[in-house]
Amino acid sequence: MPRLTLALILPLMLSGPAPSRAQETLQRQELYTENIAGMRLHLRQVRGAAGEGRAILLLHGARVAGVGSFDLPVAGGSFAADLAQRGFDVYLLDVRGYGDSARPVQLEQAPSAHAPLVRSNEAVQDIGAAVEFIRQRRKGQRVALFGWATGGQWAGHYASLHPDRLSALIVLNSLYRGSTPHALIGKGSRMEHPAQPGRFNPGACGAYRLNEAASLARPWDDAIPEADKSVRRDPQVAQAYAQAALASDPGSGARAPASFRSPCGAFEDSFYLATGRQQWDASLITAPTLIVAGERDFWSRPEDVQNLAADLVHAGKVQVLRIPDASHFIHLERPQFGRAQLLDAIDAFVR
Questions:
Q1: For the chain, what is the domain count?
Q2: What is the spatial distance between Cα 293 and Cα 37, in angstroms, rounded to a whole number?
Q3: Which H helix or E strand runs over 129?
Q4: Is the pTM of this model over 0.85?
Q5: Keywords on this record (predicted)?
Q6: Is 3 part of a structural domain of the chain?
Q7: Is residue 261 part of a domain?
Q8: Does residue 325 fall inside a structural domain?
Q9: Integer Cα distance of 178 and 182 in angstroms
């Protein structure tokens, strides 16, 4: 078991626009524990002032860390705050190599010098340390686990290994298993090795990748069908998302243009999932599971959703929610484009 310690609790200090009046009643703390390798892990807790609610751990995706993904300091930008307002005790985890968690030493070296960093087995170790840390604070209670995109893949993997520690599993816009062509990351994409079909191309990413703010905007812009992107996406949320992503890497400002590092292990894992390889078995999951996918999502495929639901033979309760007209970034867009429906579904499912 990982050694669990509470290294530091700090009051939240946010830059940028002031939070809304509703969010002012929330409490935020910066918490730290260690994974099994002795690396420091960062969690942010967001909770209401009334006391303990339903515990839920939110897992980020392949590039942007926990705070940037779920707790932006602008109106409509904090999925964590919205959950806390509904009575959840919310935790955000930075997996190793992301945000304020410890970074592998290879992240300080050239991307070409090493294989892709932070594969799913290491991410699952970090999730395990975070879950046990939360359970220790809450007298052994079970924890709900929510994962977005790659975070959902990690969450499902963890749930297959430790189902007894979870009250619920929620997977949003995630891969699982399927042979349907995946243009972004599957066979024939730049992620496939040009000389070895079916194998991941390490040259496409390296140990880690450098991400500029524009690289975050492009896929989000492409996911919005309207010419005026502000119809679905508040410009302040988009700006705060990019700022938080850059701020998550202390060295981002030293590069021109500014960029943040993200480990590439998530992309190798996703490549194999997208090409039909199964990394974990959902039949081992016993926690009630909610599978959510946006109709316009570019990451998960209908086949991933169908196969995951079919394999959840021991989950007790399985619910599949396909949100019409919703994109990959449901939780960061305006309420009427799926965000409100997603919050309602989680609130009703996690009891």
A1: 1
A2: 34
A3: helix 120-137
A4: yes
A5: Signal
A6: no
A7: yes
A8: yes
A9: 9
Instruction: Report, as an integer, the average pLDDT of 131-135.
Output: 98
Q: Report pLDDT digits (tens) over 250-301.
A: 999 999 999 999 999 999 999 999 999 999 999 999 999 999 999 999 999 9
- The domain of 150 spans 10-349
How many Cβ atoms sit within 10 Å of the Cβ of residue 141? 14
Domain CATH for 129: 3.40.50.1820
Residue with tokens 């090493």: 114
Cα separation, 190 vs 195, in Å, equals 12
Can you say whether the dihedral through the CA atoms of 343, 344, 350, 351 is positive or negative?
positive
- Pick the closest to residue 280 from 164, 120, 123, 151 (CA basis): 120
What's the N-to-C CA distance of the chain in angstroms? Answer: 27
Q: Helix or strand or coil: residue 147?
A: strand
Note the pLDDT tens digit of each residue in 325-338: 999 999 999 999 99
Lay out the sheet containing 143-148: strands in order across: 10-11, 26-34, 40-48, 88-94, 54-59, 143-148, 166-172, 289-294, 318-323
Tell me which of 78 and 1 has the higher pLDDT: 78
CA distances from 259 to 210, 237, 243, 329 (A): 6, 19, 10, 21
Please indicate, yes or no, if residue 333 is contained in any of the structural domains: yes
The C-alpha atoms of residue 242 and residue 213 are separated, in whole angstroms, by: 5
Give the closest residue to 329 by CA, choosing from 61, 10, 33.
61
Query: Quick check: 202 pLDDT over 90?
Result: no
What six digits make up the tokens of 28? 């935020």
Q: Cα separation of 48 and 152, whole Å?
A: 25
> What gap in Å lies between CA 328 and CA 320, rounded to an integer?
16
